[in-house]
Write a structure and sequence with these properties.
The longest helix has 15 residues, at 83-97. With 122 residues, this protein is an alpha+beta fold. The chain is elongated, with a radius of gyration of 15 Å. It has a five-stranded mixed beta sheet with strand order 3-1-2-4-5. Helix 1 packs across helix 2. 23% of the residues lie in helices and 35% in strands. It has one domain: 6-pyruvoyl tetrahydropterin synthase/QueD (Tetrahydropterin Synthase, Chain A).
C-alpha cells in the first residue's frame, strides 16, 4: 500500500451555533488542510496519483470555502461549521472528484490553528 499527502489552505469565518463561549460569535481562521490518500497500484510511471492532480482537486473544494462565511454555505445550514464537519465536507467533496482514480481517501485533517485540528476518515 502506498500513501501520499498534500496540503492546502483557505481563510473563512464561522460561528458555532449553541456554543457557550466566544466561538458562538462570528470569527475567522486561516485553515490548513491535509489530505492523505492511498492506493495499492502505481501507474506506468510509478505514481499513486500525480501530486498536481490531487492538489488541484483539493483546491477546487477549498475554493468553495475560501473567504466565505461558512454558516451561509448550504451544507452547513443544519450543521455547525465545526472543524470536524469541515473535515467531513472536504472528504465527501473530494471523494466525488476522485471517484475515477484508483485511490482511497484515508484522512482529511483540518487545522484551525497550529495547535488544534480535527480529522475525518472512514
Amino acid at each position: 500500500m502506498y500513501e501520499i499527502k498534500v496540503k492546502g489552505e483557505f481563510s473563512s469565518a464561522h460561528m458555532l451555533r449553541n456554543y457557550r463561549g466566544e466561538c458562538e460569535n462570528l470569527h475567522g481562521h486561516n485553515w490548513k488542510v491535509e489530505v492523505i490518500v492511498s492506493g495499492e497500484v502505481l501507474d506506468r510511471i510509478g505514481l499513486v496519483i500525480d501530486f498536481r492532480i490531487l492538489r488541484s482537486k483539493l483546491n477546487i473544494v477549498l475554493k468553495s470555502l475560501d473567504h466565505k462565511n461558512l454558516n451561509l454555505i448550504p451544507f452547513f445550514k443544519n450543521r455547525n461549521p465545526s472543524s470536524e464537519n469541515i473535515a467531513f465536507f472536504i472528504f465527501k467533496k473530494l471523494e466525488k472528484l476522485l471517484k475515477n482514480y484508483p485511490i482511497r481517501i484515508q484522512k482529511v485533517i483540518v487545522w484551525e490553528n497550529e495547535n488544534q485540528c480535527a480529522c475525518y476518515y472512514e
